[in-house]
Write a structure and sequence with these properties.
By secondary structure, the chain is of the alpha+beta class. It has 16 helices and 41 strands. The protein is globular and about 95 Å long.
């Protein structure tokens, strides 16, 4: 057999795991010294820097004098860097984060002279079906990966991967892993034995004559005796060509072959564990990350566009800093939460610091825009539509700080009705230090109120005013009613459960929303049921503390769900229910067909999993959900995989628990039910119900011999008591719809995650700022007819001052878009291409334009 043996020299560089980012940065400095010197001395050697450009930033920060030597090696393609900024997770994080990660990774690599255009993701826990299109739009024609492959996908590990939109790239599964040829032996007999094992696997799975030998491992130093090792390999295989190569040359060897075509997600766990239920590990960290993604992509970037109308500088540098810091937490281990407690604390703290920047920047923009509206007076309320189309008959929540408990909200001379959601008294000195410094005793009322917005144009600001009243008595609209309703639904607490009437069809759904809890014997990688479990559902709970709020804009039902549960696995084993816990639930109906569900809970249980349950009354075999800038369809039950996994000795059980982005829907005939989520991304469908995991609590980073994952532990077996999340205060935001109409659920999800925002210009503030030079109201707007397409990005281009929009078609049909404003095609690099007046966007296609 005339093999072409290609040795790929690399290191896999987890920046953090059961060790910290700071520790690896010190090690990286030493590692890079050796790599640079070895590459300079051996000009035939190519070395792959794990596909992530952040390693350059981390190294040069500690060794700035070495930058020119690094650039020289990158320019001659001896040191291969990029395309990622960090080795990101490809299932959990937002699709925009994946795109921006590639953008900044390729940008950084090009600063050093060249970028490796290969979708290298060696250790990521699964790959979504939209990834081929994202790669393709960056000019990347291949992906090399380890986890996610099985023979149910293809017979050979070299194949064509067809994305959900039809984009096709080369897919190369690393059949022996990214670490298959780590530390190749210098002893000839040991090396021969090792190579025979490697070749046996590669001969079986490789589609052509090339054999990819992955010579690297986690933080592995460069193997300096590689030339002597290669001489020995040539002796073992005299007919083979043996060389140090790169990924691109391996792809070249496949181009004349007839390869199998694979479609869909790459998430099979036969040869390597995929950890599908890592989606619910350390939900405190995951929810914080999602909050930042939504605030940056959905709020702050379009808000910064509005600020340009007042000559406020668009803060590209702030966005880059925040995004890169966030991407540092997006590595598969980092955002997965499968780390030591110390590392998880560091990750969470870094995200908190980004949140402080993002929240302050949002508040600053709103305050500057409000201060500029001089002709509206001092008592200004500004409303913001962050989407580029008109929105009608929606609600907006505004927080007021006033000296009186009552006040008027005015649109010109017209008074606008509002509903007080909550109100409390505060000391103004705790808000404004000038009040405290002057020893003034000023009490203020902090009020959350909701009001109706009849219409607001796309990407625009609307201005209202307010007048303080005369009362100082706290407003309390609470009643004891057990039902709420709007034009679409009636929701009633009845028989210790929640009953839904769908008015359009007359259908009644009993126990429509509930919370389920069970044991969790898993670890930071996977949920796994305990050998002895007790599952508690709504029938085991008690509903108390019922109250309602009713106004012209919203009707709200609040209640408390209480359970007596085992406090840990030891109590569960004994059948003891020795801990009372509760969830505070708020159900809201407004003008839309969405039932909003907000939950508050403080965890006090160990070894436990909680899930929100939506009863749909729909029996179906398929599930619709959104993924990365796309919509996919999954089976309810993975029958083929689950029928063979034990016999074929898969690395872990291919559970029918899947990842989604923001919604999950079941549909049969004319019935459709959807659950929407802010940051919760794990679902399972059982018996007409959609289960969305709220959070899990567990004891170890890794465990062995789990029911769902037999054999060795993943990671290492160290205790991680922080993962029990004792005392963690959670706020969950969900919504549900039982109405099927012309607005697709991707648009509904986007609007749910991007509500109209409101800001009151307050008398008391933490910081003093000057009134902007430009004193005017913002009258610009951007209203596009997207015809069912969904906006993913609305920002200023990094290449010009034009508005950059990324949108996608969530349907499987073509959509004809017409552009009335001057519009240009663009790409993932936000560059201006040809002018367009119309465009036919394919089903599931991502489109980049400049306006």
């Amino acid at each position: 057999m005339n093999r072409n043996i290609k040795i790929l020299m690399h290191t896999h560089w987890d920046r953090e795991w059961y060790f910290t980012k700071s520790e690896t940065q010190v090690l990286l400095r030493n590692h890079m010294f050796e790599v640079i010197e070895f590459l300079e001395e051996n000009t035939d050697v190519i070395y792959i820097l794990d596909g992530q450009s952040v390693m350059l930033d981390d190294f040069i920060e500690f060794a700035p004098k070495w930058k020119e030597r690094v650039k020289a090696l990158v320019e001659r393609k001896a040191l291969r860097v990029g395309p990622w900024y960090t080795q990101t997770d490809l299932m959990l994080v937002h699709g925009e984060s994946i795109i921006r990660n590639l953008y900044y990774g390729m940008k950084k690599a090009m600063e050093y002279g060249d970028v490796m255009k290969v979708g290298y993701a060696p250790d990521t826990f699964g790959h979504s079906a939209q990834i081929p299109q994202i790669y393709k739009q960056f000019g990347i024609e291949s992906t090399f990966f380890w986890r996610g492959f099985s023979e149910l996908k293809a017979d050979k590990s070299d194949f064509l991967w067809k994305g959900i939109d039809g984009s096709v790239i080369f897919g190369i599964n690393l059949a022996t892993g990214y670490q298959g040829a780590k530390y190749l032996e210098s002893d000839k007999d040991e090396l021969k034995s090792r190579m025979e094992k490697i070749m046996k696997v590669l001969d079986k799975y490789s589609a052509g004559d090339s054999r990819l030998i992955m010579n690297g491992h986690d933080q592995m130093p460069i193997q300096k005796d590689i030339h002597a090792v290669m001489d020995n390999i040539r002796e073992f295989y005299p007919d083979a060509e043996v060389s140090i190569a790169d990924f691109e040359s391996y792809v070249d060897s496949l181009k004349d072959l007839t390869l199998e075509t694979v479609e869909g997600d790459l998430n099979h766990s036969k040869h390597a564990r995929i950890h599908k239920t890592i989606t619910s590990t350390r939900m405190d960290i995951k929810l914080l990350n999602t909050e930042l993604e939504y605030k940056i992509y959905n709020i702050l970037e379009p808000l910064a566009l509005l600020g340009k109308n007042l000559n406020i500088d668009y803060p590209h540098e702030i966005f880059e800093k925040c995004l890169k810091e966030m991407f540092g937490t997006h590595a598969h281990d980092s955002i997965g939460g499968c780390n030591s407690d110390l590392v998880n604390k560091d990750i969470k703290q870094r995200l908190i610091q980004v949140k402080e920047i993002v929240d302050t920047q949002i508040e600053l923009y709103m305050r500057l825009i409000s201060l500029s509206a001089e002709k509206k007076g001092k008592n200004v309320i500004t409303l913001y539509n962050y989407l580029p189309y008109e929105r009608k008959n929606e609600t907006v929540e505004v927080e007021f700080v006033t000296r009186t408990s009552d006040f008027k909200v005015l649109n010109g001379e017209k008074e606008i009705d509002y509903l007080v959601l909550s109100q409390n008294v505060e000391d103004a000195g705790l808000i404004d230090r000038q009040v405290a410094a002057r020893l003034l005793d000023i009490k203020v009322f902090r009020t959350k109120a909701v009001l109706n917005v009849e219409s607001i144009k796309g990407l625009s600001v609307e201005y209202l005013t307010f007048e303080e009243g005369v009362s100082y008595e706290l407003i309390n609209n609470v009643a004891a009613d057990t039902s709420i309703e709007n034009d679409f639904y009636k929701v009633t607490i009845e028989n210790n459960g929640i009953k839904l009437l769908v008015k359009g069809t007359g259908e009644v759904v009993e126990d429509v929303f509930s919370i389920e809890t069970s044991g969790d014997a898993g670890d930071s990688y996977d949920y796994s049921p305990p050998h002895k479990d007790i599952i508690f559902a709504s029938k085991d709970s008690t509903i108390t503390n019922i109250e309602s709020l009713k106004g012209n804009t919203q009707e709200i039902l609040k209640y408390r769900v209480s359970y007596n549960l085992p406090q840990d696995q030891a109590s569960r084993d004994l059948g003891k229910q020795d801990k009372e816990i509760f969830f505070d639930v708020t159900l809201t109906l407004d003008n839309s067909d969405m039932i909003k569900v907000d939950l508050e809970h403080t965890n006090s249980l160990k070894d436990t999993r909680f899930r929100a349950v939506l009863n749909t009354n729909i029996k179906t075999e398929t599930v619709e959900c959104d993924s990365h800038l796309s919509v996919i369809e999954n089976p309810v039950y993975f029958e083929k995989e689950l029928s063979i996994w034990e016999e074929d000795k898969w690395a872990e059980k291919p559970v029918s628990i899947e990842t989604f982005n923001s919604y999950v829907a079941l549909e049969k005939d004319e019935k459709r039910a959807t659950i929407f989520s802010y940051g919760l991304k794990e679902y399972e469908v059982l018996d007409k119900k959609i289960f969305v995991t709220l959070f899990r609590s567990f004891s170890h980073l890794g465990k062995r011999e789990l029911i769902n994952r037999p054999g060795r532990p993943s990671g290492i077996e160290i205790e991680t008591p922080d993962n029990q999340l004792i005392g963690e205060k959670f706020k969950f935001s969900l919504a549900a719809s039982f109405v099927k109409n012309n607005k697709n659920d991707s648009i509904k999800a986007k609007e749910f995650l991007t509500p109209i925002a409101g800001y009151q210009l307050k008398e008391f503030n933490r910081f003093n700022i000057n009134v902007p030079k430009v004193k005017t109201i913002i009258e610009s707007e951007l209203s596009l007819d997207l015809k069912g397409c969904v906006v993913s990005t609305l920002k200023e281009s990094t290449q010009s001052e034009n508005i950059f929009i990324r949108l996608f078609n969530p349907t499987n049909s073509e959509i004809q878009l017409d552009f009335s404003k001057e519009t240009y095609m663009s790409n993932m690099f936000e560059e201006k291409l040809e002018k367009i007046e119309k465009y036919t966007i394919k089903g599931q296609e991502i489109l980049n334009i400049l306006v």
